[in-house]
Amino acid sequence: MTETFHGWAAAKSGQALAQIEFDPGAMRPDQVQVKIESCGICHSDLSMLDNEWGNAVYPLVAGHEVVGIIEKVGDQAKGLAVGDRVGLGWFSGSCLSCQPCLSGRHQLCSNAEQMIVGRHGGFADRVRADWEWAIKLPQDLDPASAGPLFCGGITVFGPIVDFGVKPTDRVGVIGIGGLGHLALQFLNKWGCEVTAFTSNESKADEARKLGAHHVVSSTDRAALRKLAGSLDFILVTANVTLDWNSYLAALAPDGRLHFVGAVLQPVPVSAFSLIGARKSISGSPLGSPATVAKMLDFCARHQIAPVTETFAMKDVNAALDHLRAGKARHRIVLKN
To answer: Which residues of the chain are in CATH 3.40.50.720 domains?
Structure first.
């Protein structure tokens, strides 16, 4: 039996979204079907809609920070039932047979299905995904604002877990936006001494309220020099080019400069700036399903939530314009 989903799609790069009907095809036995309650908007949605990464397929229904209720469960889906409230993020499937999947690192699966790459995502009334990526939402979390945790949240929480950030560490966060405002909350509750780097002085007070112990201008080289050798981990959540060598100099021995923001320009670094103090540069996508569940439990325990603004799903174009204009504080959620 065929079904009809309704979504908001771009017909090509740069065009406003228009409502469409589409047939999602036959539901696979390892999938669940989710009736969407809300969907966050991520800057990656803009990148896909504008084909900045060259992999957009049109018409494109973007959206990958979904919260909704399961209304169908495939015969091979495990641990989920009709009526469960779940969240979905960037990934909508993984092969479950490769070495990364078998070792619990599903986000590194080379055959992973991505929610809005070659398929339709969450700016819609319904969506499907493989069962392992549909993560139950704890009752203590507000479903109306939880959507951004499934992309923005796990993007910054994953490295804290995966790279062994310790409560005794001194950690810097570059960029206090959709990703950074969550990173400050996580790291503060993790027990770290947190330094926020921002180019916008008006965000200083808010950064402190969110968990930063110190706030430094991200472009102030003199202030960066004072931090030389003091930070154990620096998390880059912004997508702009900065003086990366100054940030490397701010790292302590064995320190790590870690990218989760999609900086499009190359990062020019000399090998000697890494070798002497055994420093590292790295990057990561989101986290595994197990790490997503751990993050949700951590949020429920410490009452961590995204700062959100809400638009009706039908007003998606106005919401996208709001984000493009840099006015979002800090994450937009579309509500069905």
So the answer is: 154-283
CA distances from 176 to 13, 226, 331 (A): 28, 21, 11
Whether 1 has a pLDDT exceeding 70, the answer reads no
Tell me the C-alpha to C-alpha distance, in Å, between residue 164 and each of 98, 157, 233, 284.
24, 11, 10, 14
Q: Which pLDDT score, from 0 to 100, does residue 201 have?
A: 84
For 51, which DSSP code?
T
What are the structure tokens assigned to 140, written together? 């203590």
- Taking residue 89's Cβ as centre, other Cβ atoms within 10 Å add up to 31
> Under a CB-based contact definition with an 8 Å cutoff, are residues 77 and 136 in contact?
no
Alpha-carbon torsion, ordered 12, 286, 141, 207, to 10 deg? -90
Length of the chain: 336
Kindly state which CATH superfamily the domain 154-283 is placed in: NAD(P)-binding Rossmann-like Domain (3.40.50.720)
- The CATH homologous superfamily for domain 5-151+287-335 is Medium-chain alcohol dehydrogenases, catalytic domain (3.90.180.10)
Task: Calculate the average pLDDT of the chain.
Answer: 96
Q: How far apart are CA 258 and CA 297, in angstroms?
A: 24
Which class for 94: exposed (0-12), middle (13-18), buried (19 or more C-beta within 10 A)? buried
**pTM summary value:** 0.96
- Per-residue pLDDT of 308-332, as tens digits, reads 999 999 999 999 999 999 899 899 9
Consecutive H or E run containing 225:
helix 221-226
**pLDDT at residue 200 in the model:** 86
Q: How confident is the model at residue 264 (pLDDT cuts 50, 70, 90)?
A: confident
One-letter amino acid for residue 333 of the chain: V
Tokens standing for 119?
A: 């398929």
Which of 99-103, 130-134, 209-213, 217-221 is predicted least confidently?
Answer: 217-221
| Contact (Cβ atoms closer than 8 angstroms) between residue 265 and residue 192 | no
